[in-house]
Prior knowledge:
homodimer; alpha/beta; six-stranded parallel sheet; 17 helices; 14 strands
Amino acid sequence: MIKLTKYPSPDQWEELLARPYSDNAPLMASVKEIIAAVQAKGDTALRHYTAQFDGIELADFQVGRAELEQAGNLLTDELKAAIQQAKQNIEAFHRSQHKSEDAVETMPGVLCWRENRAINKVGLYIPGGTAPLFSTVLMLAIPAALAGCAEIILCSPCNAKGTIHPAILYCAQLAGVHKVYKIGGAQAIAAMAYGTQTVPAVYKIFGPGNQYVTAAKQLVQVAGIAIDMPAGPSEVCVLADAAANPAYVAADLLAQAEHGPDSQVVLVTTSESFVQSCLEEIEKQVIHLTRKDIALRALSNSRVILVKTMLEAVQITDQYAAEHLILHCENADEIAVQIKNAGSVFIGPYSPESIGDYASGTNHTLPTNGYARAYSGVSTDSFVKKITYQKLTKDGLNNIAKTVMVMAEEEGLQAHAAAVKIRLGNQ
Amino acid sequence: MIKLTKYPSPDQWEELLARPYSDNAPLMASVKEIIAAVQAKGDTALRHYTAQFDGIELADFQVGRAELEQAGNLLTDELKAAIQQAKQNIEAFHRSQHKSEDAVETMPGVLCWRENRAINKVGLYIPGGTAPLFSTVLMLAIPAALAGCAEIILCSPCNAKGTIHPAILYCAQLAGVHKVYKIGGAQAIAAMAYGTQTVPAVYKIFGPGNQYVTAAKQLVQVAGIAIDMPAGPSEVCVLADAAANPAYVAADLLAQAEHGPDSQVVLVTTSESFVQSCLEEIEKQVIHLTRKDIALRALSNSRVILVKTMLEAVQITDQYAAEHLILHCENADEIAVQIKNAGSVFIGPYSPESIGDYASGTNHTLPTNGYARAYSGVSTDSFVKKITYQKLTKDGLNNIAKTVMVMAEEEGLQAHAAAVKIRLGNQ
C-alpha cells in the first residue's frame, strides 16, 4: 500500500520524490535493428514486424475510406455525442493558442515580427492494447488541424483480425487526420520518420507508447526528426489540506493509479487527520474498481508526504514537477499562482483530473517524470514553427549599421560587416 | 567554386539541396566517456579535461565577480555602445514574445488557461576558438532574463592563460547571467546536465558548439535534459530575381560563407543574367576578405539554382528550409507570406543577414540542416514552460460530467469516471 512519510527534512525530498526507474537501454539494440530494417526494406519490413508482433499478415496497411467513414456506425450515439462535446471544448481552448503577433519596431526603420507556420507533415502514434486511447487521437489531431498541418497521418497497431478500434477511427476522421495506417510499435515510428512505399515521412512525431515506441522516438530524434516530448509513466500529485474532501482526493488518486502498475501517485498534505481519512477512503473505493489490481500495484510505488506548512507543500510539489497537479485546499487560486513546475493544474474540489484527460479542453499529452521543469505539454504551438522576419528601410539600415559593423569586426567576421557597408556606400 | 544548376526538374531538387553530411557517430564513444567521467568524478574530471583540451590547470572554474565587473574596462567605448544598442533591440523584440493569455470558458463553468513559468535553471554554452561569440551571449541570456529564469549559468572554455574574452564576460554580466564557468567542450555540457561540486545542474541547455558539444547535447537530451535544438553548420538561402542588386547578394553570400568551411550557401534565382553578374561580384569581393580561404571552401559546397518561375523558386526554398532566408526580389513582402519553412527571413535590399546576427532584435540561434521544417529558433518561449490550468464550478462539473464518464468507460478507465461520479452524488 501507499507509503506515508511524516515531516521529512528537505534533504530527504529527492529520494522521496524519485520516480520508479525503468531503463530502456537493454532494448535499444533491438529497436535500432527494427529502425534499420524499416529504413532498408520499407513496407516489406513493416509486413514482417506486423506479422511478428501483431500476429497478422497485412496486404495493405492503410485504413480504407469506407472503413473510416463507417466507423461511427459501430459506436453508440451516446459515445459519439460525448466525443463531439470533447472535440468542441478541445478546439475552443486550442484555437485560442493560435495567435498572430504584432510587429515590433526595435529601432526606427527596423521592423521585426514572428509568424506561425504549420509543420507541414506530422505523424501521430496511438498505442493499441486493451484500452483504445481514442481521446489521445482528439488531443493530437485537433491542434494539428487547427495549426493547418497539410499532412496529418496516424499509426496504430491493429488487432489479430486486422482492425483498429472504431472509436479511434471515428475520432481520426472527425478531428481531421488525413491517413490512418495499421502499424504499431517501433516499426511505426521508423516508418513515419523515414517513410516507406506506403507511409510518407513526417517532420515531427507525437504520441504515447510502450518502451519500444519511446526508445524509437528517442533514436529518431537524435537523427533529427522532431518529437513531442520525452515520455515516462503517468503520474499525479495532489496537494491537500484539512479542508479537502477525502473521498474526492481518494477518487483522484485511484483514477491515476488505474492507468498502469508503473503509474505514480503522490499526496502532499498539511493535515495528519486528513491522511487517515483519505487512506480509509482509498481502501473503501479501491475494492469496487475493475482495474483494482493495477491500481494497488501503482499505489505500492506511491507516497503520502505529511508536511508542516503550505509553503513547504508547494516547494515539494515544485520539486516533484508533476504531470498532473490537483489543488484540494483553501485558497487554491492563490496556491495555483505560486506553482512553478507542473504539466496541468486542476484547481479546487470540482476539477478532477479526469476532466482534463477527456474534455475540459486542455491537452492531456503532458510532461511526465519531472520533465515539467523544462517542457510544456502539447498545444497548438507544438504543431507550428514561429519564423522570425525582419525588414529594414534604408534609414533603418543606416541607424543600425555602426552597431552591426563594430560587433562583426570584433568577432572577426569581416564579411558580415562588409555586407552592411556595401549598402551604405551605394546609397 | 560555387556550382550552377540550370532548370533542374523537381526530382533533382533533393540531391541538389543536400547538406554536406557529417557523421558524429565515431566520436560518440569518447563523448560518452567524458560524460560518464564528469558524472562520476565531478570537478576532478573537469580539471582533468580542462588540462587536456584547453591546456591549463585550473584551481577554480568560476569567473570571479571582480573579473566580470572589470571586463568592460578592457573593451572600447565604441564596442560597448554597440553591444548596448544590440541588447536594447534584442530586448524589445523578445519582450514582445512574453505574453499572458486570456482564459477560455470552453463550456459554461469550465475555465481553461495557460500561464508562463520560467524554466528555473538554464545553462548557456558559448564556444571558444578564434572568434569570441559574445553576440550569442546576448541572444541566449537576454530572453532567459526576460523569462525570469532564476539561475542562468554560462560555460565557455578559457584560453591557455586561463581567461575568457572580456567581450563574453561583459555581455554575460550586462545580459543577466548569474555565474560564468571556464569550462568547454563535452565536459561543460555534462557538468551543466548533471552538476558537479562547483557547477549546478540545469534543466535546459542552450548554445552552439563543435561536434563534441553537439554530441554531448544529443546524449544528455536522451537522458531527459532539454536542449534548445539540434545543431548543424550555418547556412543561407538567397532568393533573387532580375531586380536584385548583385553586389548586395554577393556580399550576403560571402557573409555566410566566411562562417566556416562547412557553411552552405544556396542562391535560387529566376534570372540567368543575374547569375552571371552575381558570380562576378563574388569573385571581386572575395579577394578582400580576411577569411577568404574559409569562404572559398564553403562556396565549393554551395549551389546556384536557376529556375523558370518565382513559384518554383519558393517551392525549392521551402524544400531547403534554410536557417537564414534572404528575399532579394520584387514583391518581397508577398513572397515572405508564402514561405513555409525557414528560421529567419530577411526582406528586401536593406535587410542583410548580418543585421539579424547581431542587432535587429531577432534571435540568431536558429534551426539549421533543414530542421526549420519542424523547429523554431530560440525565443523567449524557449525559456518558459506553459502550464495549463483548469477550474470548474459545481455547475461546470455537472455540465461536463456525462461526456467524461462516457468516454472514460469506453476507454476502460472506470476509476476516471468514478472520480467525476463521486462529486455528483455528493452535491
